[in-house]
Amino acid sequence: NWLALLKFSIGNNPVIALPYGNPDQALAKRLAPSELNFYSAYAKEKLENQLGRSVRTENGWGKGSSGLPYQLQSLYTSNRQALTGLSTITSSSEVRDLRARLALVMNSDLKRMDQSYLSYASVEAVKKVVAKLRVNPGRYQLTSDSVKLPVTLINDFDTPTVVSLSLMPSNSRMAIADVKKIELEANSRQQLSIEVDVFAPGTTTVIAQFVNSKGQPVGVESKLELSATIIDARVAWFTTAAAILLFIGAVTQSVRRIKRGRK
User: Which of 17, 65, 11 is nearest to 45 (CA)?
Assistant: First the structure.
């Protein structure tokens, strides 16, 4: 009813959409100018859907200062960077909607308590969304100098994506190469077989993280704990030869027993 009355009141008059959440525009421009443009485009789309007509966007109509404290500005920036990074590899509306809602914390009508509540609630919401695209952590025991490592990639978003995988070992005991342009289906788990070259025994932690086409990290880091126990080739040959000789000796002894039994 309210929307119907609003449409009737507007008539054919021009309509200007404020940036979504009506944030403090001076602060938004200082923290992230491109994000202010995103808030305007998002608001235009939402308002046109509700009114059933075209609207335009213009900055400068918003009034007031939010006085957002520096600590909360820092939280906003880290949340924004996490979501804009995800936006480069997924078109999920979940990411887009949450990204727009970050603007609310800069609304000049909010009290300090409300600013704090929205800021810390956004931190938890962003963590849950970012964790939907991840590498499954794990522990692996390696017993040879060249191993195929099974690594599971998870995409819990409702849209497919293409990503690259960055793999950074903590030391030079092992070498493992990055993987480029991996196609992940929506709501899927995919296992990759990644080759690892082992140069020395010991433990190595590999930091695994997705990156976009520009090489920027997206999503959360995962740790792959690799423990290598390499047996020298000469020791392995000697052990194998000894086992074969023992087997031949056992067979010979069994044959002799059978012959004695027949006699």
Answer: 17
